[in-house]
Amino acid sequence: MKGKLYALTVAALILFVVGPSTASSLDMPLEGITPGRMKQLFEDLAAFTDSAPPSVTRLVFTDTDMQARKHIKQLMTDAGLIIREDAMGNIFGRWQGSDPDAGVVLSGSHSDSIVLGGRYDGTVGVLGAISAIKALREAGFKPVKSIEAIMFSTEEASRFNIPCLGSRGITGHLDPSILDSYKDENGTSFAEAARAVGYAAASAQEFADKTHWKRTGLKIDAFVELHIEQGPHLEAEGFDIGIVEAIAAPSMIRVEFTGKGGHGGGMPMLQRNDPSMAAAELALTIEKAALGTGASETVATVGLWDQSPNIYNAIPRKVQLDIDIRDTVGERRDSVIQTAFDSAAEIAARRKCGFSTKTLFAYPPGTGDERILNAIENASNKLGLSSKRMISRGYHDAGLIAQIAPTAMIFIPCRDGLSHHPDEYASPEQIANGVKILALTLAQLAGSPSSEGKDEL
Amino acid sequence: MKGKLYALTVAALILFVVGPSTASSLDMPLEGITPGRMKQLFEDLAAFTDSAPPSVTRLVFTDTDMQARKHIKQLMTDAGLIIREDAMGNIFGRWQGSDPDAGVVLSGSHSDSIVLGGRYDGTVGVLGAISAIKALREAGFKPVKSIEAIMFSTEEASRFNIPCLGSRGITGHLDPSILDSYKDENGTSFAEAARAVGYAAASAQEFADKTHWKRTGLKIDAFVELHIEQGPHLEAEGFDIGIVEAIAAPSMIRVEFTGKGGHGGGMPMLQRNDPSMAAAELALTIEKAALGTGASETVATVGLWDQSPNIYNAIPRKVQLDIDIRDTVGERRDSVIQTAFDSAAEIAARRKCGFSTKTLFAYPPGTGDERILNAIENASNKLGLSSKRMISRGYHDAGLIAQIAPTAMIFIPCRDGLSHHPDEYASPEQIANGVKILALTLAQLAGSPSSEGKDEL
Fold first, then answer.
1. Is there a contact between B304 and A311 if contact means CB atoms under 8 Å apart?
2. Mean pLDDT for chain B?
3. 8 Å CB contact of B302 and A326
4. Rg, C-alpha atoms of chain A
């Protein structure tokens, strides 16, 4: 009976606390979030670049990145946040809530860029989270759960040829050997580069261990990532906001076929084992397999085709295909990968070619959490902004965090769907809309007692 | 009756002249053709190079090529030959025969090289012809027909991206506009480069006209080209000599497919018009068409595959295929080209891709002349060298000369079939064998009255 009474009390509490708190969260004045302020924030951060404006080149752990990190930490301090960093360089800025035992409401993205990238990829989520929290503080909001802004370390693959190292470290989806074995173009590994700038651990394993959420004590109640869409849909369809309910599970596989080569004139057709013909067969097989799932979410792209030699009158000796395969359903994507690998073996045997197959990465899909999705939707409606639910086929740190905590993303439109490009652009107004929605979402999520806390009542 | 009498007289003359002359031709001492002398000749010529030995880089009309030409003209002079050059830089060295009205017995090849080529491609035919004529002179041979050594100008496509300009000019298989429009990497055309070194004509058309055999009065009774095999067959099968009875008709076609591209993650399969998939279909169609002729002489190679962009997660916007198609029967080759073009159109229409097709070149096949082939065979037998009849899938100036005159080629083995490579090699003994056979072949052909001359009796 005591248990039942507790349960009833909890239920009443939830109705009481969530109800009014949500309502008041949505009435928050957000005067600090203006297009002008957003414009200035992005101009300031874009100054940290190793290439000429409007492009941004900011590879992780370079001098330029370290200056940008210092700048971001200053913004966090100015917003009243308490900063901590983990072993791999993920930066957290904490606003303490009234319930010290509750999981945190976490929001952020990355600030590193590709070579000759743009100003908005990632940075919208970092500057957005800091701005949203600052605006909530200024509005007098009192969070129950702590709210944290996060800057994930090295989301881009630009320097070490592998993406999302920071969020992989947090979630435990990291093979630590990568931190030693993957090198930048100067032959420097992540571990070496991290140590050189002061993020130190004795070994790759220790880097990973010391970043893992279980070791750092990171307890996430909800994670929200604000990001530009990097696609044309919102702009084309005239929506202000995308509510991302799934992040496709991307993968990259590599298939190589080899043969003895030879002169294009000299070698009779029947004596050939031409790897380009094997590759052509495989490409069509993969296309058929992707179409064959019947789901529009299944996509496969033979993006890279490198044959060697590559001159008109030589039979190639080697063809390398790098293939992107994505799906919102992990098993369905994996079935296309399996078809590709099985077909490669069959084609190679039939054509007497050598072959090798390799999965370079295969992330799990990220599924949006309905509670967070609803909070985003409430915020959009309150602000009179139009929104649509959508999926992200691009990958983000949120895709990894979704493996360990309730997660969702907020997309804002970007011009022409262009990203990873110097002309990447989101207007100050669009950014301000996104940050306001983020603020109201964080307020809704942080204003109520933690669901984990409830279990402990 | 007078005609009949003449004909009978001619027949008797032929039996008389060809018989003994051939026999005596085959008994010629050829003491000047020794491995040691051959070794020296090739070392001397290889010194004219713009890259480090053992590689040879000798692009037409460079300072190095002009020095090599001077050297070759000196060798011709030393052999007692009278030199003339045509408007496009083809160099002829003439040994006057006793019948000034007879067509010439012509032999030679080219001395230009690719970048980082070897010592023997082409040069075996040039130095071989000069050495063969010199040896015949020294042996006291008296030719009825004149014998000429020739160095064809710019057989390699290395500088102006198009091969055999000299022999095309001679035979009239030259689109003169090429001489202005095709440029080297510095933007210099053939016409500009030729004028700069003293081969002058007022216009591209005039270059071509002044080189054409009808304008220069070149009357060829027979043409023989000595060359390294550039393939592995003679060496692998242990033959000393290849008697080339056909030169495959090579062609190069280019097919481009275009599509709208897009992000590999973002674009649903059904909305794509992926040019790499169109290219894969076409590649397999061409392979099938080549196999479908049922002739081992039909070969087709998708040697160059360039897609743009070429990264794993982007649908390409353009794929360019450069395809080599060859056959000893021109019509059969052309049917494969036609299938390729028809299929490209069908595939592009079905996949909603843009496309373009282009024939970059399509030479006619060269058919060996039985009289010359027999003369080569006689010479081989006389010298106790093993020979086989074979085809050349590689292209040579002989392929063009065969369009206007009786032609054949003599192949000598080369190590590992390697050519267009710094390690290209034929031994001094193998070269000496080839040059001796060439000399005895020229003697047989030049010792008898010209067949054209006979018609005029």
1. yes
2. 92
3. no
4. 24
Mean pLDDT along residues B376-404? 95
List pLDDT tens digits, range B320-353.
999 999 999 999 999 999 999 999 999 999 999 9
Chain A neighbors of B311, CB-CB under 8 A: 303-304, 322
Residue B250: strand pairing partners: B326
The architecture that CATH gives domain B2-247+367-455 is 3-Layer(aba) Sandwich (3.40)
- Is the ipTM reported for this complex over the cut 0.85? no
CA of A324: how far to CAs of A142, A169, A335, B196, B349, in Å? 45, 23, 14, 53, 26
Tens of pLDDT, residue by residue over A342-379, are 999 999 999 999 999 999 989 889 999 999 999 999 99
**By three-state DSSP, how is residue A343 classified?**
helix
Quote the CA–CA distance of A56 and A113 in Å, as a whole number. 7
Q: Taking residues B99-122, what's their average pLDDT?
A: 95
Asked if residue B457 has pLDDT above 70, the reply is no
pLDDT score recorded for residue A24? 66
**B274, A248: Cβ pair inside 8 Å?**
no
Q: Taking the alpha carbons of A152, A153, A159, A161 in that order, is the dihedral positive or negative?
A: negative
The single-letter code of the amino acid at A76 is M
Return the pLDDT at A266: 75
Q: Is the pLDDT of residue B363 over 80?
A: yes
- HEC readout, A438-455: HHHHHHHHHHCCCHHHHH
Chain B contact set for A421 (CB, 8 A): none
| A4 CB within 8 Å of a chain B CB | no
Which of B265, B274, B281 lies nearest to residue A326, judging by beta carbons? B265
Q: Are the C-beta atoms of residues A312 and A264 closer than 8 Å to each other?
A: yes
Chain B nearest-CA distance from A105, in A, is 29
One-character DSSP codes across B144-208: SS-EEEEEES--SSTTTS-S-HHHHHHHT---TTHHHH-B-TTS-BHHHHHHHTT---SSHHHHH
What are the extents of the domains in chain A?
19-248+365-455, 249-362
- 3-state DSSP assignment of residue B17: helix
* CATH of segment(s) B249-362: 3.30.70.360
Domain at A19-248+365-455, CATH from 3.90.1300.10, 1.10.150.130, 3.40.630.10, 2.60.40.1120: 3.40.630.10
The rounded radius of gyration (Å) of the Cα atoms in chain B is 24
Closest chain A residue to B297, measured at CA: A268
CB contact under 8 A, A284 and B280: yes
pLDDT tens, residue by residue, B48-74 = 999 999 999 999 999 999 999 999 999
Q: Nearest-CA distance from A1 to chain B in Å? A: 54
Position B448 scores a pLDDT of: 62
User: A267 and chain B: CB distance < 8 Å anywhere?
Assistant: yes
Q: What tokens were used for A12?
A: 């009443």
Looking at residue B317, what is its pLDDT?
A: 93
Nearest residue of B to residue A317, measured between CA atoms: B303
Those residues of chain A that have pLDDT short of 70 are 1-24, 448-457
pLDDT tens across A11-57, in order?
444 444 444 344 467 888 899 999 999 999 999 999 999 999 999 99
Q: Round to whole Å and give the CA distance between B198 and B396.
A: 26
List the one residue out of B346, B340, B351 whose CA is nearest residue B283.
Answer: B340
Residue pairs between chains A and B whose CB atoms are closer than 8 Å: 159
Binned at pLDDT 50, 70 and 90, residue B229 comes out as: very high
Choose the closest CB to A312 out of B230, B252, B265: B252
A299 touches chain B (CB under 8 A): yes
Contact B295, B329 (CB under 8 A): yes
Q: Are B101 and B454 in contact (CB under 8 A)?
A: no
